[in-house]
Amino acid sequence: MGKTTILKKIFPSAQYLSVDSEPVREVFDCYDPMAYKQILKPDVDCVVIDEIHKLSDPGRAAKIFYDQIPEYKLIITGSSAFNIKNKASESLAGRKIEYHLYPLTFSEYLVQKGIVNNFSNLFVDKFSLNNVYSFDMQSILDNVLIYGLYPETLSRPSDPVYLQNLVDSVVFKDLLDLRLIENRVGALNLLRLLAHQIGSLVNYSELSKRLSMDVKTISRYIDLFEQSFILYKLLPYSTKQRDEIGKMPKIYFYDLGLRNALVENFQSIQNRPDSGQLFENFIISEILKTNYYGSFGFKLNFWRTKQGSEIDLVLSKNDGELRGIEIKSSARTGGVAFSNRYPKAKVITVNKQNFYQ
Q: In the CATH scheme, what architecture does the domain 3-87 have?
C-alpha cells in the first residue's frame, strides 16, 4: 500500500490532484491562487496534491495555497522530501507537519499479505520462544531479507528486475535533477561500497582513498543519500568514557531489497556470508520504523569500545531510560559488556526465533 492509497482510505472525501497530470501541473506552476481556486471543488474541505515534488517550486505552491486558500485543509505528498525541501524558495516553517512513510514494517507486510491480522511491538521487555505460528515464519523472513519491504513487492514478489531497475530509475533521479551529484559513477560506487559494509564502522578517510574522492564529497554524498531515505546513520552511544568509540558511524539501508540490488546478490539466505548483517539491518530498521510510527521517543545508537566490546543497538531517552539490544541470527545471548558498563540498562537479545511477538 503506497502513500496515495493510504490517504484515500483516511480521507475518502478529499479532492485528489496529481501533478503527474500535465493540466494540473500547469495550474500549480503558475503560482496564482485564483488559478488554484478554479480547479477546486466547492463541496470539499480537504485537498491532496499528489507528487508535488514534480513542480518547479513545490514549497512556493504549498505556501501560496496554505496562506491564501485557508478554507481548505491541504495535504501534499512527494516521493522525495529532500526534493521538496531543496526546491522550496519560500519556507514552510510553522505551516507544516511532516509524516514519513517508510517501506513496510514486517507486521504491515504480513497483514497486507493476509497472513495475520494484527501488529506486533518490538519495544517489549521480554521475548517468548514458545510462539507457534500457522505459517512458515522462517521462509517469509528469509524472503524479506532478500527482496525487502517496498510496497511493490506485494504485487511483484521475489522480483530482482524490479529492484535493479529501482536503483537506476529512482535512487539517483531526484539528486541528478537537482544537480546535487556531480559524479554519478563515483556516487554509485560509494553507495555500493556502503551496501557491502552494513553494520560495520564507516571510516570516511578510508572510503576517500578507496574511491579516489575527497572526504568532503564522501560526507556530502552520504548526507544526500540519508536525506533521500536510501540509508541512515547510527551514531555511537557514549557517555564520554575514554575507551568508548564516539565518532565513526555505522550505516544501514532502509530497504534490504534495494541494498541487495546494489551488491547484485539475490542468492538465498542460506548461501550468503552476509546473512548476519542482513538480519541485523532488518531488526534495526524495524525498530526505527516502530519508534517513529509509535512516537516512542527513543534515540537509536550503537555502542562499542576501543577494545571491541559492543552491542548492536542502544535505545535511550532523556529521562534516563536505557535499553540495549543484541541482535543474533541464532539463539545465543549477548550484551554482557554493555550490562556491566550500564547495569541499570535493560538488555534484550533478539534472534530469528523471538523477533516477532
A: 3-Layer(aba) Sandwich (3.40)
